[in-house]
Sequence to fold (114 residues):
Amino acid sequence: MTEFVRVARTGDVPPGTVRRVEVAGHAVALANVDGEFFAVEDTCTHEEASLSAGGLSGEVLVCPKHGSRFNVKTGRVLSLPAVRSVAVFPVKVEGGEVFVATEAQKPTGLPHRR
Ligand code: FES
Fold:
């Protein structure tokens, strides 16, 4: 059964922002897209950069290091130099608090290339 851990209050991550949180020992970028929360692996698949340190534009997360873009809803990589998608973590909101699953689901969209 999937386990969820509490990572933030909804007010901690206002719409249009992203924040790095820890989930069972791994770094996750928690994004608020128009009041809906999404979580993806925080480390860029190109090099060691924290995606949550970049900007969020709509549902697109931009890597601060070389500018690769990722869809926060699907994890799909949208532009070079990264070529692999990031993992997506299920999210649920209850009582004004945000919970993220401890296990990622497979990215959707393009195949997860290695
Ligand atoms: S480290 Fe993210 S695009 Fe290079």
